[in-house]
Amino acid sequence: MLSMTRVCYDRENNELDKPLLEYYEGIPGEYLDYMMATFPQNRLAQWLNCLQFSEKMLRKFPELELKKGYVFSHHNMDNLHPDHPIQYAHAWLEDEAGLKIDPTVLQFSLMGELHYVESGAPTGKCMGCGDLMFDNEYVYCGKCEWSVPDE
Description:
It is built from three helices and eight strands; from the N terminus they run ββαααββββββ.
């Protein structure tokens, strides 16, 4: 039995209470065993290594598909505005059924429930709300209160 240290912040209960293993819930055993044996199970050691770790795991499991985009959480303590959660560029893997297999999910362990969005590389950030922008030539995203509607 794998013993994991509790380091995750539960914002609603204002306490540390989510075991790290829950972040890997639903991942098939062979993938989970590989991730536990190969990658550090420490959020700081995983930080900024998502593409590197995902590509390494893809070489071992070519049936998986590499996805690139961003993640966000409405429960992230760093969000400045509830309608515009901070987005983090990210890479992860998915199986043929769409199950997300994220070897660096622990780097987001303080954010709460994650939402994954596949997209191309971001081309900038909105000057108003900070959202990532994709193929946008303007300085504002067009969705936030800072954007000026076209007239």
